[in-house]
Design a protein that fits this description.
With 219 residues, this protein is mostly beta strands. It has one helix and 16 strands. The strands form two sheets. Strands 1, 4, 5, 7, 12, 13, 14 and 16 form an eight-stranded antiparallel sheet that branches. It has an eight-stranded antiparallel sheet with strand order 2-3-6-15-8-9-10-11, with no helix packed on it. A hairpin with a 2-residue loop joins strand 9 and strand 10. It is globular, with a radius of gyration of 16 Å. It starts with 13 loop residues before the first strand and ends in a 7-residue tail after the last helix.
């Protein structure tokens, strides 16, 4: 399926693209089915999210029981030594909650804990990677958070709105598993979500940010 949610999106390595503004991805509040704009991944909206069409055409989550489930996780079809995860996010408040979660074992998770942002990559209930960082997020506005991992080159980077905010050499792989990807177990909004089977360059991260920043009133 062609990418139609925005111009100038990096397509090389793109394996999953969810965007509520695109009717091919979600037909609107009367539907509980979502589809990736790339590949064949499809999933379901659970509880109240399908009736919550947020600002800037986003999914709104109540932090209690709203979520989107994509079985299986599009990145977990094989072990990835290099990958990128990107999401447009706006928090409703400074509360704890999961943005992404792959199973109760947290094979992969993004997690808000008060003002900090945490990344988890587990392998069969053994914590192989847990990173915590205060990214200096503006919690009153939208943020495009992008995580880039490349184990072969010992690269872990986190960008916010196209700017590098965190860099480390503790990169880890995304492990193969059959668990679904769960999106949105926090209080706030999620716009476009993209997953890549490669490590995006800083130029590609910036390109994607520039392609959609106007939609979220950012410069």
């Amino acid at each position: 399926m062609p990418v139609t949610a925005g111009p100038n999106i990096v397509e090389d390595g793109l394996v999953f693209y969810l965007d509520s503004v695109n009717k091919d991805s979600w037909s609107g509040p009367n539907s509980n089915i979502v589809n990736s704009l790339i590949g064949s991944a499809t999933g379901s909206i659970d509880n109240d999210t399908s009736g919550s069409f947020g600002n800037n055409n986003s999914f709104t989550f109540d932090g209690v029981d709203d979520k989107i489930s994509i079985p299986p996780d599009p990145l977990a079809t094989e072990t990835r030594t290099a990958f990128t995860v990107s999401a447009w996010i706006k928090r409703a408040n400074i509360s704890t909650g999961l943005i992404f979660n792959n199973s109760s074992l947290y094979y992969f998770a993004w997690y808000f804990y008060s003002t900090s942002f945490r990344v988890y990559l587990y392998n069969i209930q053994i914590t192989i990677f847990e990173q915590q960082s205060d990214l200096g997020l503006d919690n009153t506005n939208w943020n495009n958070i992008v995580m880039v991992m490349d184990t072969d080159n010992s690269i872990e980077k986190i960008y916010v709105n196209g700017i590098l905010k965190f860099s480390d050499t503790s990169a880890r792989s995304y492990f193969n598993n059959t668990s679904p990807l769960v999106i949105g177990e926090f209080n706030g909004d999620i716009g476009p979500v993209k997953m890549y089977s490669k490590a995006l360059s800083s130029q590609e991260v910036k390109q994607n940010y520039n392609a959609l920043k106007g939609r979220f009133s950012l410069t």
